[in-house]
Amino acid sequence: MRFKNILGLLCAASISVLLAGNASAQQTVKIGGLFPLSGNAASTGVHTKAALEVAMDIINNAHPELGNFPLAKNAGLAGLGGAKVEVVFADNQGSPATGQNQALRLITEEKVAAITGAYQSGITLTASAIAEKYGIPFVNGESVAANLTERGFKWFFRTTPVASDFAKIYFDFLKDMKAAGAKTDSVAMVHDNTEYGTSVATVITSVFKENGQNAPLDIAYAANATDVQSQVLQLKEKKPDVVIMITYTSDAILFAKTMQALDYKPAMLLADDAGYSDPSFIKAVGKLSVGAFNRSSWSVGPPGSPTALIAEMYKKKSGDEMDDTAARQMQGFFVLCDAIDRAGSTDPAKIQAALKATDLKPDQLMMGYKGVKFDEKGQNILAAGVIIQLQDGENYVAVWPKASAQKEPVLPYKGW
Amino acid sequence: MSTILVQVIVGGLLLGAIYALFSSGLTLVWGMMNIVNFAHGDFVMLGMYVAFVVYTLLGAGPLLGAPLAVLVLATLGVVVYFALIREIMKGPMLAQILGTFGLALLLRYSVFWWFGANFLTLPENIVGGTFDIWGLRIQASRLLAGGVALLVTLGLHLLLTRTSLGSKMLAVAEDSTAAQLMGIRPDTMQAIAWAIAAGATGLAGALIATFFYIVPTVGETLGIVAFVTVSLGGFGSVPGALVAGLLIGVIESLSAYLIGAVYKDIVVYSLFLGFLWFRPQGLMGKM
């Protein structure tokens, strides 16, 4: 009994020390960062964490070498008297229910001013509903499921291009490839049954139909598969000209390995970001996926440019090259911090108003968007992207459209 | 029959043998002491990481990785038995379930902390690439795992039915007080059972690592299949797990190919539930 009393006193003492410490600290703006830090998408979540830590470094410390990049020049947020930004990371464990609980905790216990996250579309869906209920801004830089901005939410803002933008890009890209002599008449989509996989597949199907082309062959499977031989054999039998892969990392690796084992190569393989952009995918099976096309809005840019410097900082922090997913998340975070800076306050309503007034130009961004400007649904109407190709099995290069291409696209898909 | 359909069935059989391989340890622990080891999938995961470490440090394939995985996991099995299982067996059923579940999370996040969240793989040709027999593609790594699955099943079955060690272990499983009166030490027998079960699981992990990805959460993906295999085969029956594994592998592959991969789990699990309705003890289990 006595031991318990002492323990209680110690706890009380440490709590009061913590509280006192907090009160005397310099003003900080707390932002919730909700990401898959464990579970099957943890490799993405860990890279995101590194990306946001680099972003915090850029915002909280003076980085004159980044030129006119927003929030870089001086230390902290000028609009809030140099206040520092602190991300409170929360783990969504790859589960929509956990994501929702964590969003609630961030808002009610951590008292964050805004939230960014949550990578998987299905989790962004549930977590942002909590933010909406509590009137806290939720800025998403990476989830592409169309319906996220179709819910009439007032507190949800999304900077990334979405599935419909990319479906259009794929369609135009395939048309150009056809004009250049490639066969692109029959298309198959391989996708998982998550919010992400099904919504992207649905959007691609409708864009193809609207443009008078046959609906792609649909090969759906349950995410985190133990085996994908049957799916690959279905492809082998149907012989589509183009295969579009819409999968997270674990399944993407399994598909690449199984395609090699069963000696199957489509003439063209086009990946929808996600798993194919994960650095650990490229390290694990990049050499089995030579010639894979992918979408991206990220490009390192010439040496000395802000993007090249950011990429360098990121590599130092994470040990990996910057990938499109981490970069889009980082961009979303910068847009949020820029809005807080302009709002000059941590009041959610003022941040919301500042987000609505966002009008960033291409030279103020690290991504290849035409700008950031939100419509009334909260979707960035100036988001854009390019097609990249894994030509050497190690690094992606931009190949389409011509204006942003570093190299010519190479066909057919080489595989291994 | 088209070549592709044959390929689906052969692929399913090999897959099933692998399911059986990583289920045998689970069924053995159940048969010996009525404990469901929820950390089973994470034992498989540890076996995979042993194979990976052996490859990165020594450049060696499963020829060295697999025996080392057996050794490491068998040791872990004994440690886990004395440090955790022996104690929680005295508690209520719920404590047993949560105890091994806690162990699962401990193992998973220790590996996560040490190795990070990145997906790792072993080189494709670490066990001699892929055979092409009249258009039929067979991966050497899967063939090896399938062959070892048969040997492990046979070995465990013979151990339990034909040796005095097996009889002693079964005696403890049946009635540990009576066994003690006959001069058998229940602790020793059960520790041996854990060593064998964990060792077999480590072996499975090291072999699966040659064709699967390696990540700290891989036990979650594989663990569930092991539970289904074991309950279909009959808890505690090693040959049952083999037959059940083969069945599940073939049914999964065929239904994924013929109906669609997104429906295969519906097919497998409704057949599974339907079967348990008629035979709750599983294919070869005892009531």
Low-pLDDT residue intervals, each spanning 5 or more residues of chain B? none
Q: What class would the helix/strand composition of chain A place it in?
A: alpha/beta
CATH topology of the largest domain in chain A: Rossmann fold
CATH level-4 homologous superfamily of the largest domain in chain A: Response regulator
Q: Which two protein chains have the largest interface (Cβ within 8 Å of the partner's Cβ), and how many residues from each?
A: A-B, 43 and 40 residues
Radius of gyration of chain B over all CA atoms, rounded: 19 Å
Q: Cα distance, first to last residue of chain B?
A: 40 Å
Strand order of the largest sheet of chain B: 1-2
Number of strands of chain A: 12
What radius of gyration of chain A results from the CA coordinates? 22 Å
Class inferred from helices and paired strands of chain B: mainly alpha
Task: Work out the helicity level of chain A.
Answer: 40-55%
Q: What oligomeric state do the depicted chains represent?
A: heterodimer
Mean pLDDT of chain B: 91
Query: What's the CATH architecture of the largest domain in chain A?
Result: 3-Layer(aba) Sandwich
Strand residues, percent of chain A: 5-15%
The largest pleated sheet of chain A is described as: 7 strands, mixed
Number of DSSP helical runs of chain B: 11
> Secondary-structure element order of chain B, as H and E?
HHHHEEHHHHHHH
Could you tell me the number of beta strands of chain B? 2
Helix content of chain B: over 70%
